[in-house]
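ok so for the tutorial part 2 we go from a plain amino acid sequence to predicted structure tokens. step 1 is just haveing the sequence, like this:
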Amino acid sequence: MSGERRNPFRASLRIEPLWRRVALGGLAVLIYAGAFVPLYRAAGVGVLALSIFPVVILGWLFGAWGGLVAGAASSVLNAVFLNAVGEPGWALVLGETGVEGSALV
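step 2 — the prediction. this is what the tokens look like for a chain of 105 residues:
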């Protein structure tokens, strides 16, 4: 057995330098942002389930703390995107049915 213990809050993917990880994380968010409107037209508010994509990528790149920050920011990002397509974004994300989904992310 190895004497080294793995810290669960560290990133499992080591990409150096830091700017490369930031660029990959930003790319994941841009892909989600670019796909939101076309997928919203096809699936409606069901597209919000895909908000887990950038959260998982950011968690993979930056560890648990990066994933937690991305998860918290995804609620705000989804509300902004929903407002952009004409939905009541804050009501859907923070309303009775949206809170569970936002908490799961």
